[in-house]
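User: Hey, quick favor. My workstation is busy. Could you predict this chain's structure for me?
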Amino acid sequence: MVTGRFAPSPTGPLHAGSLVAALASWLDVRAQRGRWLVRIEDVDLPRCVPGADRLILQQLAACGLVPDEPPVWQSLRGPHYEAALRRLVDGGLAYGCACSRKDIALAQAALGRSPERGVELPYPGTCRPERGGLRGLTPRAWRLHIDRCEQNWPPRLVGAAQAAIHLEANHRGTVNWSDRRLGPQRQAVAEAVGDFVLRRADGLWAYQLAVVVDDAAQGVTHIVRGEDLIDNTPRQLVLQRALGLPHPTYLHTPLVLAEDGEKLSKQNGALALDTSDPLPRLRAAAEHLGLPANNADTVPDALAQWVGAWRERWATHADA
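Assistant: No problem, here it is.
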């Protein structure tokens, strides 16, 4: 069954940009007569705002976006992430890292790399087992070994991988895949991000591991989310392959921008979504997604019309 999900972080209430992503994921599933889920991604507990999760669910319900199953909270799923990490470590695909941020900066400087504003330089592999490992130090974090993942990938896609995903590995872990809206994508993961973190130095689970484990556990087949998350997709494809999990299809929606041209977000003061009169908010979100205007008087009628429009535009190309 086609299964999609909306996975907000409860760092505050939904805003206009959040509604665009939520509406798109809901429409994509409804257009294919599938199952829509909500997952509260509260794995980064220090950033979460008390009560924001409940408020988000209330905002979604006011807009007619009700999940088909009870929501899942990532903060309750630590044992599942621990099991996945143990599989990777036991298979030689993950390793402990003792480096501090200062250590990493010094190692990068020694390689002639200078940091750029807003860009995280790839990890230089200092604690890789073949380079001496931890040397008696205590691991601070755990990282995925990109090169070993590439060496151990099976020749074909695993599980129920959709035809829209074209994943292959070659020099430096290059991943090729196709987004349903943006078309062919390519990233050399080893060069762009290096051995990325699976469990952080503060003991919290990294987003990449949590989302991959949960998508597989919930049977998610179609991921529709904001374009700001597209850079995460290659890492998630690599991790799915390393864990032997199926690959969903992906569609990344256009971002809602603030007046300064930056992505509208809670960090730059985006206003909480006012759902006291949800129809105007939904119409604005639908317009941003390129859907035709409608004159429906109720939320259910408006959503029903947009489901048909979405089916004509996107759902028929889900597996293209």
